[in-house]
Specification:
Low-confidence stretches: none
Structural class: alpha+beta
Largest sheet: 4 strands, antiparallel
Length: about 140
């Protein structure tokens, strides 16, 4: 994730990972143990997965936070709630170390989704803009050589 600030506005670019099946094996092998934001999707049998929710992972990183969602033996349970693993779930993530940036981007998504009571921004900017990009599995932006 990258932030550029001008006057009282922030312009974020969020580079999303590819969408991965949310399994213990994938979390252990693929998901990094660094901070970032993530989105969880579920398969309802339609043409594309449906967004279930999004959140942050700071202490413990993405790997431990996501493991806490799917593994009842994890030492990092996410509010004691586990996903219903009877249906397929998927995850994508974006890396950042700055908690205020996580707040701003999650606030932007909450406002865009009509859930303005779900998140608070960092209070640093009056306007927040977010551009989303996708990365290939090897970390390159989609569409670039």
């Amino acid at each position: 994730m990258r932030r550029q600030a001008k006057d009282d506005s922030a312009y974020y670019t969020v580079w999303w990972s590819p969408l991965y099946r949310l399994t213990k094996d994938i979390v252990t092998r693929v998901i990094p143990s660094v901070s970032g934001i993530f989105e969880i999707y579920y398969d309802d049998g339609g043409r594309s997965p449906q967004l279930l929710g999004r959140s942050r992972a700071y202490y413990g990183g993405l790997r431990n936070t996501l493991r806490g969602l799917i593994d009842p033996d994890s030492p990092y349970p996410l509010n004691g709630e586990l996903l219903d693993m009877m249906r397929p779930h998927f995850v994508r993530y974006a890396l950042t170390r700055v908690t205020d940036d996580m707040d701003d981007v999650l606030y932007f998504f909450a406002i865009r989704g009509g859930n303005d009571e779900e998140a608070d921004d960092s209070g640093r900017f009056n306007m927040i803009y977010v551009k989303e990009e996708s990365l290939t599995p090897d970390g390159r932006p989609v569409g670039r050589a």
